[in-house]
Amino acid sequence: MLRLLKKLTATTPVPAPAEPVAAPAAKADSYALGLHDAVLSGWFNQQTDELFKGFVVSADDTVLDVGCGDGGNVHFCGMRGAKIIIADIDGAKVEATRQRLSDTPARDIECHVSDCNPLPIADATATRVVSTEVIEHVDDPAQFLAELVRVGKPGALYLLSVPHPSSEDLQKDIAAPEYFQKPNHIRVISEDQFKAMVNEAGLEIISHSQYGFYWSLWMLLFWEAKVDLSDPDHPLLNHWANTWQAVLDSPRGLQIKQALDAVVAKSQVIIARKPVA
Predict the structure, then answer these.
(1) Burial code of 156-187, b = ≥16 C-beta within 10 A, e = fewer?
(2) Methyltransferase type domain: from which residue to which, for each copy (predicted)?
(3) How far is Cα of residue 52 from the mean position of the Cα atoms in its chain?
C-alpha cells in the first residue's frame, strides 16, 4: 500500500494552493491626473487664491483672459468673485465659458468674440491679464502682446504661457503635420525668445518657470494611439497615466516630478507686471 501511495503521489502530485490573483489596478483618468499634476506645479491654489504661484486673484480684480479656451482659468478667478472679461476667436468656446461662469460669484461677466487684433476693450481696464498657450498661434506676437499691455492697468499682473521647446522638439517628428501648421503652433518659442518678447512689450518679468513632463509624454503617446482627444481611451495612454500616478504616489514622487519637469516641460510660464509709471 505504501508503495502504491508513493507511486501515485509521485506521478500525480497534489497541486499547491494557487497564489491569490491581485485585482487589476484601477485605470487612472488622464485628464483628472493632469489637473492634479498642474496643481502640484502651482496652479489653482484654493488656499492662497493663486491661479498660478505668484498670481493672486481677489474679488477686487478685473481679470481678462484672452484665448479663454475651456474657461478653466477664469472659472477659478470667478470663484474668487472677480470681474471676468473673456475674449476668444471661437464663439462656441466663449459661450461655453460664459455658461461655465454662471455658477460662480463673479461680480460681472463680459464676453467678446474677437481675433484680438485689436481687442475690443478700453485702455487700462484689467488688473489681471491671462493668456495661456496663445502666442504660439498668432501671426504677430509683438502686436498681440502690445494689445495685452494696452488694456492692463498700471501695476497689473500678467500670466502668460507658451509651449516649452523641449516638448515641442519631442513632438516634431511624431505629431500630426497640422499640429505645426496654422491655426495651430506656427512657431516654437525658446526661453530666451519668450523673455525677450515680454520685456520688449514693456512688462517687467517677475518669474519664469516650466512644468508638464506628464503632458509632454502623454501627447507623444496620443499621436501614436490615434484616438479622439475627447475620449482618449487607449492602452498606451492608460498605462502611462497609471505609471505617472504610481510615480506621484511614491515617497519621492514630487521630487521626481520636479526633476523631470526641469528636463522636458509641456509649458513655460511667465508672470510679469505692467510698470506703474
Answers:
(1) bbbbbbbbbbbbbebbeeebeeeebeeeebee
(2) 64-158
(3) 11
